[in-house]
């Protein structure tokens, strides 16, 4: 969970600020992302695909 020093916010932002929490589905998604980011084969595949797609697509489109 994140924390915000609400005293550092302006009054207007402080009134609108709504703290959020991570639900179980989001926690599972993030856990899977961290696990997969350590997979060597996946990283190699992403690097190759990124290099190839970069020849005719923007980085933003590749990330999408």
Automatic annotation (TrEMBL):
GO terms for biological process: methylation. Pfam families: DREV. InterPro entries: METL9. GO terms for molecular function: protein-L-histidine N-pros-methyltransferase activity. Keywords: Methyltransferase, Transferase. This is Methyltransferase-like protein 9. It comes from Portunus trituberculatus. The lineage of its organism: Eukaryota, Metazoa, Ecdysozoa, Arthropoda, Crustacea.
């Amino acid at each position: 969970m994140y924390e915000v020093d609400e005293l550092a916010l302006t009054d207007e932002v402080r009134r609108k600020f709504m703290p959020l929490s991570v639900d179980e589905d989001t926690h599972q998604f993030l856990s899977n992302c961290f696990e997969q980011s350590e997979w060597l084969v996946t990283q190699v595949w992403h690097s190759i695909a990124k290099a190839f797609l970069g020849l005719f697509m923007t980085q933003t489109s590749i990330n999408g």
